[in-house]
TrEMBL record:
GO terms for molecular function: structural molecule activity. The keyword ATP-binding does not apply. Pfam families: B-prop_COPA_B_2nd, COPI_C, TPR_COPA_B, WD40. It is a peripheral membrane protein. GO terms for biological process: endoplasmic reticulum to Golgi vesicle-mediated transport; intra-Golgi vesicle-mediated transport; intracellular protein transport; retrograde vesicle-mediated transport, Golgi to endoplasmic reticulum. It is found in: Cytoplasm; Golgi apparatus membrane; Cytoplasmic vesicle, COPI-coated vesicle membrane. Gene3D superfamilies: 1.25.40.470, YVTN repeat-like/Quinoprotein amine dehydrogenase. This is Coatomer subunit alpha. Keywords: Cytoplasm, Cytoplasmic vesicle, ER-Golgi transport, Golgi apparatus, Membrane, Protein transport, Repeat, Transport, WD repeat. It comes from the Eukaryota. Oligomeric complex that consists of at least the alpha, beta, beta', gamma, delta, epsilon and zeta subunits. Interacts with SCYL1. Interacts with JAGN1. Interacts with TMEM41B. Interacts with SVEP1. Probably interacts with PEX11A. Xenin stimulates exocrine pancreatic secretion. It inhibits pentagastrin-stimulated secretion of acid, to induce exocrine pancreatic secretion and to affect small and large intestinal motility. In the gut, xenin interacts with the neurotensin receptor.
């Protein structure tokens, strides 16, 4: 039993599924009716108008209604949309046990302890028929799903089948004469008994069959949905099957197994199964054909009372003493596997193949039995599949191996040579090998004949998943580990609990670990990229071609980026299982295993993906052409720090204003503020413009908001006294006495202050101010004014006047900016507005290199120089927009003053040149950035990588050593670029300074110029570091960790590309290092390939062991290779060759115990110096080893070499990637690696 949802409540006596929505009604013993959303696991509503237990509950099939019946003798009809009871039907005289709607007519069927069954017309709200005949409580009564029949069960130990065709004819047929039809249904019909006849002799309801066979009272009865079969459950602990026809009914069989009263029994809607529950705390599943119990589910403390099935889904619900449980009998997830454009899936008893290109669906294989297959994995090399059957009991879990027919036919063939064994999971690990995990946590590697070739223990392993050739993902209770089958060890692990699926991307670079409610994205080494938690179950997942994971829940298709961004693509009506995502199409299977294709809109996640990957041309194209709308996307751009991107496609002015303020775009903010003309917007614009030093825009914002105090302060701090004086006049006009006096104080205008004081009635203060400043004579008549009179206070004789300082210079222009920054999109939009194209805009900023970000693309030098005069346009625009309210603050400048005319002054006139250093400020001339100097002055790839010019670095490496694949070099490039600059902290709150460390700083030039004349970046990797790594790789080789050793040797080899040396001696040492790494990588990879061979290929294994001894290794490692080859040849009975290796081993000087063993082998071989097997090995003819096929290339034979490592290959491998470096092209004509400025090739 697969439990889907459980609730805790009082005893559940009735249950009903909604036919379409994920809802279920529970009627409780305490009188409450609960409405649950079992998909979201939430309680939607409670209905509590009944008094006492509610036993009957049922949803209407089409209307938003449900009916309930309780121990208060009442039947209530509810509207769940209005959340209220519509009406109550009264008539029963005792407890009501069940209530059901008719599937077609407006009828309700109720069974009661008053020994009657009643049929009600819920539209007319009257009882139209009463069925009497039982002699005890009627425990259940139900309509037939398609015929005019009713079946009832009673504690009188009988089951009655009633024919209600007369009731249908009387109440549903069109009315006669004066009968009124209500809603198309006859509303008449009073309380008529079953024996009542009308004028023509027909009866409303008659007893058609009486079934007797139970020894105690019958609790439940039900019709089969399609067959003339009835199931009943009784207190005699038995479940009985009955069959009927038009003339009679009889007992088919009895199902025994329950230990207490059987409460309920139902038919499975779509399978030949029955379900029953009992007061013995168990639910049993019965096979209708065999009449045997096939499954039993038990609870510890809860008796079961009710059981119901969903009308269309594979869902069941059971009510018990402490709540209810919703469950499935089996998984509905189809078993499928995708390979290229071919989908293999199991439907019923057939394995089918669907071509996604042609949409051709054809059967492939007829499976031996109808089993619940839970997994399917396909091996394209052998054209074989592994089918897994997972059971709740691990001992019953099996797998099947089937070889598929090569030729496609229109009919499925029988699986004749299938192989079946026990095992929890079976996964392919090689071309002709698969791994099986059994119940004892043992992993067995088997061949195509289902024979075990290797077996070892995996402690705590619960499941295995595919992870590429030779590897597996092993699921443990709380972790998932990447396991190497050859080395029998875990390579890495990640914390992830209860993982159910592992979905790999197409290039095997990322994996999605799917659990019940969690998706975890990891890279190839199981480093966690992101994790997403869902509130509903996750059904399936598939990777898009662009590296985006799409996954489905019960009602949504969602996406997840490796950066952690996720969202909803579309909603679903029914759950689906993704198989392939291609463009705007999603290929999937539904629960009926029917292939479907759904359309999606990938614009949103492609836009986010392009933004994360900094593909700005693609982002710009989508901004212009795609329909990107929604506040969620705008919020995403703001949250990710890209408000300037959203600014270019948002149309709402208020939103545009907020984005413009956030990204500091004053022009866009001013445009939106003018369109909105909102006080709050102007205030925010004023704050932003003040922070940017744009005085003209601040002045305009203060004028629009009539914020005269801030405007006056702006004029004061900028030294614009004439405008401040105008503000004083405006304050006088506005009758703002306080502001008027304050501005007069700031201007030092004493007479104005006296006038203000006198105007407001402060004559004493006015006289004192005038006396203190010696203005008695300046105010004629003031002394004679009787209201004023002489000042009452005489200023002290030593008083000093406080005058505001005069500004040295009026700052009426904006703050100067040395540099101007534009983001990619602003530059593109401006280029487009100027008649350019998106391509031209992209080309204008393409030179920024990898160091550029969205808002950090520097403008060219010429544009920076003109930035000092860029404020003129803004100033004119600001002044032009400042007209209106308070427009007398600014006066337009006319042409009446001729102060700008040129004069002929003598050459020896006084004054000095401001540019000479005395007066004005001369901005420094921007020198070339260090990275530009590095790329121009060096031909070393390491210098170009450190400069961030990765394109030129790639071009140099392609020319020098034939690099064709740069993914393995990405960490080296990133590390070189990161080492190329140092961060210097400055004052608190100030941004740090960046410096470029140089390796030739003494000769780099003088004058303080950045980068100097010929500066080159400091060395990031030194030869000593590579030699240290080489010693680590030696140690791994000695310990037998060949795979790790190969990685370390390859790291040393590729590290040479980022190396810079200064002497020819170091160049020679580097060449020797390359040779050592090549020999070890070829030898160790050949040994790993030898160990992966099956046991049957003994000759090939012996040959490769012999070749390994010819790799130029350290003496210690050479002894190990010779000793290994010696043992293999001795076991193969090639005594002549073994004797030669024994002598060679003794010449190397092994340990005494090894030497003694070798001498014994030599003596044995010399007694019979022959070879039992012929080997492709000639030790006397010098040869090189092909690093791809591991066969000897004898002297004189044609060969090609790798330009970096020097590894040898047969001619057919020319043009392929080198197996040693994994990044260079075999046989390419190159100039040779250059790692020193003094190096000569």
């Amino acid at each position: 039993m697969l439990s889907k949802f459980e609730s805790k409540s009082a005893r559940v006596k009735g249950l009903s599924f909604h036919p379409k929505r994920p809802w279920i009604l529970c009627s409780l013993h305490n009188g409450v009716i609960q409405l649950w959303d079992y998909r979201m696991r939430t309680l939607i509503e409670k209905f509590d108008e009944h008094e006492g237990p509610v036993r009957g509950i049922h949803f209407h099939g089409n209307q938003p209604l449900f009916v309930s019946g309780g121990d208060d003798y009442k039947i209530k009809v509810w509207n769940y949309k209005q959340r209220k009871c519509l009406f109550t039907l009264l008539g029963h005289l005792d407890y009501i046990r069940t209530t059901f709607f008719h599937h077609e007519y407006p009828w309700i069927l109720s069974a009661s302890d008053d020994q009657t069954i009643r049929v009600w017309n819920w539209q007319a709200r009257t009882a139209i028929c009463v069925l009497t005949g039982h002699s005890h409580y009627v425990m259940c009564a139900q309509f037939h799903p398609s015929e005019d029949l009713v079946v009832s069960a009673s504690l009188d130990q009988t089951i009655r089948v009633w024919d209600i065709s007369g009731l249908r004819k009387k109440n549903v047929a069109p009315g006669l004469g004066g009968h009124d039809d209500i809603g198309g249904y006859r509303g008449g019909g009073g309380m008529q008994g079953p024996g009542h006849t009308d004028l023509f002799g027909t009866t409303d309801a008659i007893v058609k069959h009486v079934l007797e066979g139970h020894d105690r009272g019958v609790n439940w009865v039900m019709f089969h949905p399609t067959m003339p079969v009835i199931v009943s459950a009784a207190d005699d602990r038995q479940v009985k099957l009955w069959r009927m026809n038009d003339s009679k009914a009889w007992e088919l069989d009895t199902c025994r197994g329950h230990y207490n009263n059987v409460s309920c029994a139902i038919f499975h809607p779509r399978q030949e199964l029955m379900l029953s529950n009992s007061e013995d705390k168990s639910i049993r599943v019965w096979d209708m054909a065999k009449r045997t119990c096939v499954q039993t589910f038990r609870r510890d403390n809860d008796r079961f009372w009710i059981l119901t099935a969903h009308p269309s889904l594979n869902l069941f619900a059971a009510g018990h003493d402490n709540g209810m449980v919703i469950f499935k009998l089996e998984r509905e997830r189809p078993a499928y596997s995708i390979h290229e454009n071919c989908l293999l899936y199991v439907k019923q008893k057939t394995l089918r193949r669907l071509d996604l290109n042609t949409n051709k669906d054809q059967p492939v294989l007829q499976l031996p039995k109808k089993a619940n297959y839970t997994s399917l994995t396909y091996n394209p090399a052998e054209n074989a599949v592994l089918l897994g059957c997972r059971s709740a009991n691990p001992e019953n879990s099996t797998y099947e191996l089937h070889c598929l027919p090569r030729d496609a036919t229109d009919s499925a063939i029988d699986a004749a040579d299938s192989k079946r064994s026990s095992g929890l999971t079976a996964i392919w690990v090689a071309r002709n090998r698969f791994a099986v995990l059994d119940k004892g946590h043992t992993l067995a590697v088997k061949n195509m004949r289902n024979e075990v070739s290797k077996k070892f223990q995996l402690a705590n392993a619960e499941e295995i998943f595919y992870a590429g050739t030779g590897c597996l993902l092993v699921k443990e209770p709380d972790t998932v580990s990447l396991y190497d089958v050859q080395q029998k060890r875990a390579l890495s692990s990640v914390k992830a609990a209860q993982v159910r699926q592992a979905i790999w991307s197409a290039d095997m670079s990322n994996v999605a670990l799917i659990s019940k409610l969690t998706v975890t994205l990891c890279d190839r080494k199981l480093a966690t990229l992101c994790t997403v938690q869902e509130s509903v179950r996750i059904k399936s997942a598939a990777w898009d071609d662009s590296g985006v994971l799409l996954y489905t829940t019960a009602n949504h298709i969602k996406y997840l980026l490796t950066s952690g961004d996720n969202g909803i693509i579309r909603t679903l009506d029914v759950p689906i299982y993704l198989t392939r995502v291609k463009g705007t199409s999603v290929y999937c299977l539904d629960r009926e295993c029917v292939p479907r294709v759904l359309g999606i809109d990938p614009t949103e996640y492609r836009f986010k993906m392009a933004l994360v990957n900094r593909k700005y041309e693609e982002v710009l194209h989508m901004v212009r052409h795609a329909k990107l709308v929604g506040q969620a996307l705008i919020a995403y751009l703001q949250r990710k720090g890209y408000p300037e991107v959203a600014l270019h496609f948002v149309k709402d002015e208020r939103t545009r204003f907020g984005l413009a303020v956030e990204c500091g775009n004053l022009d866009a903010a001013l445009e939106s503020a003018r369109a909105l003309d909102d006080k709050q917007c102007w205030e925010r614009l004023g704050e932003l413009a003040l922070a940017h030093g744009n005085h003209q825009m601040v002045e305009m914002a203060y004028q629009r908001t009539k914020n005269f105090d801030k405007l006056a302060f702006l004029y004061l701090i900028s030294g614009q006294l004439d405008k401040l004086r105008k503000m004083m006049r405006i304050a006088e006009i506005r009758k703002d006495t306080s502001g008027h006096f304050q501005m007069a104080l700031l201007l030092g205008d004493v007479s104005e202050r006296v006038r203000v004081l006198r105007a407001c009635g402060q004559t004493g203060l006015a006289g004192l101010t005038a006396a203190a400043h010696g203005l008695q004579e300046a105010e004629p008549g003031a002394a004679d004014d009787p209201a004023t009179g002489p000042p009452t206070v005489t200023p002290p004789p030593n008083a000093s006047l406080l005058q505001p300082p005069c500004p040295l210079r009026s700052q009426d222009s904006n703050w100067p900016l040395l540099t101007v920054t534009k983001d990619f999109f602003e530059a593109a939009m401006r280029a487009r507005g100027a008649g350019g194209t998106a391509g031209a805009a992209a080309a204008a900023v393409a030179s920024a290199g990898p160091a550029s970000a969205v808002a950090a693309v520097e403008v060219e030098e010429a544009e920076v120089g003109s930035g000092w005069g860029d404020d003129e346009d803004d100033e004119n625009a600001s002044k032009g927009g400042a007209k209106g309210e308070g427009s007398d603050v600014e006066d337009e400048e006319g042409d009446g003053w001729e102060v700008d005319d040129d004069l002929d002054l003598p050459a020896d006139a006084g004054g000095h040149d401001s540019a000479a250093g005395g007066g004005g400020y001369v901005p420094p001339v921007r020198g070339p950035p260090p990275r530009q100097v590095w790329t121009a002055g060096s031909q070393l790839a390491a210098d170009h990588a450190a400069a961030g010019s990765w394109e030129s670095a790639m071009r140099l490496l392609a020319q020098q050593v034939g690099v064709a694949r740069f993914e393995p070099l990405k960490p080296l490039f990133v590390a070189a670029y990161a080492r190329s600059r140092a961060c210097l902290p400055t004052l608190a709150g100030s941004p740090p300074l960046f410096a470029a460390p140089l390796r030739n700083w003494k000769e780099a030039g003088s004058g303080g110029q950045r980068g100097g004349g010929g500066g080159l970046p400091a060395v990031g990797i030194r030869l000593r570091q590579l030699l240290d790594r080489l010693q680590t790789a030696y140690g791994l080789t000695t310990r037998g960790n060949f795979a790790d050793a190969v990685d370390r040797f390859r790291q040393c080899l590729l590290g040479v590309l980022m190396l810079v040396v200064t002497s020819n001696q170091e160049v020679a040492e580097v060449k020797q290092l390359i040779e050592v790494c090549r020999n070890y990588i070829v030898g160790l990879q050949m040994e790993l390939a030898r160990k992966a061979l099956p046991r049957t290929e003994e000759i090939r294994s012996a040959e490769m062991a012999c070749y390994f001894t010819h790799c130029d290794l350290q003496p210690t490692h050479t002894m190990l290779t010779v000793r290994s080859a010696l043992k293999i040849l001795y076991k193969l009975r090639n005594f002549a060759t073994a004797a030669m290796f024994a002598r060679r081993l003794l010449e190397l000087g092994p340990k005494p115990e090894v030497a003694n063993e070798t001498r014994k082998i030599l003596q044995t071989c010399e007694k019979n110096p022959t070879d039992a097997r012929q080997l492709n090995y000639d030790p006397h003819n010098p040869f090189d080893i092909c690093a791809a096929s591991y066969v000897p290339i004898y002297r004189g034979r044609p060969l090609v070499k790798d330009p970096l490592s020097g590894a040898c290959y047969a001619p057919e491998f020319a043009g392929q990637l080198c197996r040693v470096t994994q990044c260079t092209e075999i046989g390419k004509d190159v100039t040779g690696l250059k790692i020193s400025a003094h190096q000569s090739h």
